[in-house]
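Worked example 2:
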Amino acid sequence: MNEVIEFKEKIKSLIDNLKSICRTAGLGNSGNEYQIITQVFLYKFLNDKFLYEIEKKMPENNNLESELKKLKKDKYEMLMMELDPNIARLKPDQFISSIYEKQNEKNFSKIFDDNLLEIANYNNEIFSVLTSGGKKIILFEEISQHVNDKKDKFCKALINELITFNFKNIFDQKFDFFADIFEYLINDYNSNKGGIYAEYFTPHSVAKIMASCLVNKKFNNVTCYDPSAGSGTLLMNLAHTIQENKCTIYSEDISLKSTQLLRLNIILNNLVHSIPNIIQGDTILEPFHRDTNNNYKKFDFVVSNPPFKLDFSKIREELDTKENHERFFAGIPAIPKKEPERMAIYLLFIQHIIFSLSEKGKSSIVVPTGFLTATGNIETNIRKHIIDNKMLRGVIVMPPNIFAETNTNVSILFLDKEDRSNDAILIDASNLGTTYKQGKKKKTILSNDDELLITKTFSEYEGKDDFSKIVSFDKIKSKKYIFSPGIYFDLKFDVKEISQEKFDKTIKDFETNLENLFKESSSTQKKLKEELKKIKYGD
């Protein structure tokens, strides 16, 4: 275990040193830095992975790279044919050691760039991701193009850093190891800073809870889909929970950066076979994935943390078509007159996800907590559709500030088309976790015990006072399809043990909780507060 921790720290040190090289070249936290860091890191990973797999077939060679360079072309090609098809192929002159030996040659930056492009083209069929228009986004691009001057010096610094490190000892590590490394690697590049399409990083605690609650038995040969995949945290946790070799990943995301980061995540987590299904495109306007009959593909599992607000006014008319009426069954949000950037695009994603589920499909979706109680026609119609079709498996209200990047309170919505029961479990986990300051913002962290409490309660379908409640669909219908746990909890007061002061405080606490819970649903909030005020001391 100590060796694993030590090696993880060495990898983080490698990442830090690569970032330091970028800072020295004036690229620190620039828009191009992530391209350099992630691609150079990936080059090193693929290089060492290739040699690691070759070594299994040539275990007696003390100087493997030297022996490979001596092999005749036909024998070398035969050797590569024996490798797993999901392993990137490298020629001897493409090894990092070979490029290192050329660092003093004239125009070294061009040598470095050409090498990366050759590797990318050589492995194009397996490692390229597609745009929705069919364009291939290859594995690497020219690194030196991001540097204004002293390009040779910059590329020399990179190759000298790479040559000192070897991934060999960690290829047998599992998901948790690489999840931590990936998060550390992209920490500076996966945020809501700048750009229309914010790449929010879903906290691992949230991703683990979603996967654990969703996967309630063993599965084999299933499809997993995320229509707003980002860098893939939800998909990776889901695939790991199911087992990577028992599922195939599908994704789509409008952000090119997110798509590239997702590819890296997939490679690190041994899901290379799914790369052809990774699409950069607009899911809402034109979903890419189709079945053999050219109908929209249906999936066994769908996970998503969609954008909540986004201006899609320019394509709204294109969405409002007869063809889309089945997909957007509850309607398409109107364009706000003053703030079009606050269009509720998440409502389209929820409908798209429901439409994308197979007959036995299951889903977990991050939604604004306000969706649980919102009285708008679209929100109500979505919730009504879910209940009328017996799809609701459960709801978990998460603590405030679980996403440090946004002030919006979030909940997790669980759907299950296979279960078809007549009730659901509603969990209020809003009081769990520890809150601390992260810069100017607050962030809440869930402990392992918090995560276990949530997942155990959900999986065991257990009602607990002021925490969880099993609620029938008939009861939810009687409450106008509201999904918020709080309104189904029993209010209990022991008048023999509670003072007037404690009573007043309890009522005040309920009011405060309701203000947070229903801040996006004023009408429902008002009604509930009126009911609370009717409760008198001594009743």
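Residues 330 and 378 are 5 Å apart (CA to CA). The longest strand covers residues 357-368.
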